[in-house]
């Protein structure tokens, strides 16, 4: 199975990640995975929607998966955070 | 096709929506749909994860769909907002 490029969503503006995804597709990738944790899962959805609706009409969402990850918090306890993984597929 | 209960995610605390979903399942629903728009799509994912991981182990995510909706903004223009629909299924 070939390597799939991964784009990790963080605090930068949405369009930065849109550009990153498009760069991967334009470099020949058939699939690009967008990953996000916590509040920025909403931004991951924005990125996927913008890429497929506004820029690359032949891209669709192949798969969406959620998960719960346990992370150490600042006070030493463990917090549960939702994560989202969106696989985009270019036809 | 039977009616599926819908829970619309808004500004209230996450656990309010978790409770609303669980109430529907406990009232006999086999499927519950969670809908959200914009930033609170992240909260919708939290609600789904908490319901299935912490409270109802026989519930799974059957389907997740994203969309882009056009809404009028305060200054009279139109803004595009991502939406998310998660269908939870009870085994």
By CATH, the superfamily of chain A comes out as Alba-like domain
| Secondary-structure class of chain A | alpha+beta
What is the H-and-E element order of chain A? EHEHEE
Largest sheet properties of chain A = 4 strands, mixed
Largest interface: A-B, 18 and 18 residues
Provide the CATH architecture of chain A: 2-Layer Sandwich
What is the class of chain A in the CATH system? Alpha Beta
Amount of beta strand of chain A: 35-45%
Question: What fraction, in percent, of the residue positions of chain A are helical?
Answer: 25-40%
Residue stretches of chain A low in confidence (pLDDT < 50, at least 5 long) are none
Task: Characterize the structure shown.
Two copies of one chain form a homodimer. The first copy, chain A, has helices at residues 14-26, 41-55, and strands spanning 6-8, 31-37, 59-72, 78-90. The longest helix of chain A has 15 residues, at 41-55. In chain A, strand 1 (6-8), helix 1 (14-26) and strand 2 (31-37) form a beta-alpha-beta unit. In chain A, helix 1 (14-26) crosses helix 2 (41-55). The first copy, chain A, has a single domain, classed as Alba-like domain (Translation Initiation Factor IF3, 2-Layer Sandwich), CATH 3.30.110.20. With 91 residues, the first copy, chain A, is of the alpha+beta class.
């Amino acid at each position: 199975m070939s390597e799939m490029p991964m784009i990790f969503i963080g605090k930068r503006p949405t369009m930065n990640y849109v550009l990153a995804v498009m760069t991967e597709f334009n470099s020949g990738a058939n699939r690009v995975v967008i990953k996000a944790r916590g509040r920025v899962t909403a931004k991951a959805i924005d990125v996927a929607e913008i890429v497929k609706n506004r820029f690359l009409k032949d891209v669709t969402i192949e798969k969406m998966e959620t998960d719960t990850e346990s992370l150490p918090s600042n006070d030493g306890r463990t917090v549960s955070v939702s994560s989202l993984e969106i696989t985009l597929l270019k036809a």
